[in-house]
Amino acid sequence: MASVMRSTWPLLLGVLLLMVGNGMQGTLLGIRGGIEGISTSRMSVVMSAYFAGFMLGSLIAPRMIQSVGHVRVFAALGSMISATLILYAAAPDWIIWSVLRLMIGFAFCGVYITAESWLNAGATNENRGRALAAYMIVQMLGIIVAQLLLNTGDPAGFVLFIIPSVLVSLAFTPILLSAQPAPAFATIKRMSFGRLYRASPLGCIGIFLMGGVFSAMFGMSSVWGAAKGLSVRDISMFVAAMYVGGLMLQFPIGWLSDRMDRRKLVLGLSIFGVLVVVATVALQPGILWLTVAGAMIGGVANPVYGLLLAYTNDYLDQSDMAAASAGLLFINGLGSMAGPLITGWLMGLIGPDGFWVYMGVLLAALSAYAGWRMTRRSALPAAEQGNYAVINPSATGLAVEAALDEAQTSGDANPPAAQG
Predict the structure, then answer these.
(1) Helix/strand/coil (H, E, C) string of 174-187?
(2) How far apart (Å, rounded) are the C-alpha atoms in residues 33 and 415?
């Protein structure tokens, strides 16, 4: 790992600063929306716009990179992000915020694609797995640090919007000044959704449901906290706990998944998540339990996302992984766009508990579907599975493809033909 850090530290430092900036703006908007008196339903549109922009970026940014190159796209989108972060505070209107969130989602997607292609091209066959793991860890750490920085200023003012703008601007310095040349870039081919579904019905349905869970967790958690009357400190603790839980449990659950039927883990973790939701709604606890509950939900959701990707990967040839990862990320994007909208509707209908109820319903649906799928297809022997890959929901198709390709190669898997 030390050799990986020495060779990739400019890129990883830049990604860390980018994630701090992104993590701050996501949580800060939810808090500022409450201060400005913007309704939950309107804030759900604002939060959903980011995921729409991110999905749009996944389709358009690769063509931009092919047309004008990595450096120009990187610099242009970085400037867009930095300017947008300042405009939030200058124009606290939900319609303007929705447009800005759409723009910033698009821009962050393009920036991530560029950074991930640089990372993948700069890694060797021997250290690619460690480089990708370091990248995913840095992503999570950046968002955790972002929550701490939220306590350094007044969310009703400008300072907390200026900080992420400055950090994003600084993020490009170590990357663009790195001696590593820009890599060649190829558009990821597509796989039909019918073929992808036939390869792994659970993977497709599960990824769609988890897209809704993630966008609710990481798009609406600060909106929920503001609606519940939590302080900035409490909201930042809750959001940080979700990422800490996700970071800590990725590796032990990944280790387990390489040694057993992954569907059993998906089923067990989903049921556990439902129990956490039920307990939280029933007990209406204080911030200490809410923080623990956030860590447990994050600890469930992040590994389940990786499990579903790994399970789908087990039923694909290595040559199909690029197309499959693009399809899965598109399906995940559809679920992500719907998540904040439905969460906001539920919160308007039944109050702040709608935030938890929505996640609980999706996790219950996933557990039921996983249990049913276990009756439709025999489990693969552990020896025929590829290795679990640490993958965050914020990763783009390039990182997902590279991580799953590395996992399949490391696992020396020989996947069988898909079975209905």
Answers:
(1) HHHCCCCCCCCCCC
(2) 49
